[in-house]
Amino acid sequence: MGLVIAPFLAWLFVLSALPAAVPLVLREQAKACARACLVIGTGLLTWALIGAVIGMFLFIPAALLLLVAAFADAGSRPGGWFAVTAPLATVAVFALIVLAPDPENEPPPYFKATLDSTQRFHDREFNERKEHLRDFGATSIEVSEEYTGRLELHVGMPRDFSEGRSRDRLKEEIARLPGVVEVDFCTYRTCDY
């Protein structure tokens, strides 16, 4: 069904389905088979939830079946410590691999300046001077009203400044604009309030 829904992701569906066959190889070793079912079922369920938007939700029934299979035979259950640590370790590994931040794909940092009045939107001196921020390395300059009566100036910057330009120098120039009350350095995740 996944191959029909998203044929361009066929390789991803095949790679996701392959681990589900591992317990079949271990069927003669009941305890190892139960442990493999637990680890693979947990990993497959985690992947199915993380990749739900690209159709991986189709693996949820297989993941649940593997989890149930791990505890089906009383004589070959994986054991209490393994039943607790294996799913936690599997989820932790998935979190590190799949959810780890990738600095190359995050948007570059920016400055957020709070302005004293909404009138700055129409202030000729402010508008002329803010455009000169490009001379100091600014890549984008946007003014927006965040809250009623409060304007914010968002100034984008490159990851690496060219020679003669710096983040500190750009921040100083932003602070010199008329009406700027506060300037914060922000990344994709946080601002230095």
Overall geometry: elongated
Quote the average pLDDT.
84
Order of helices and strands: HHHHHHEHEEHE
Q: Please state roughly what percent of the residues sit in beta strands, choosing from under 5%, 5-15%, 15-25%, 25-35%, 35-45% or over 45%.
A: 5-15%
- Gap between N and C termini: 49 Å
The helix/strand class is alpha+beta
Name the helicity range.
Answer: 40-55%
How do the strands line up in the largest sheet?
Answer: 2-3-1-4
Number of helices, counting only DSSP H or I runs of 4 residues or more:
8
* Main sheet specs: 4 strands, antiparallel
What is the radius of gyration computed over CA atoms, rounded to a whole number of angstroms?
27 Å
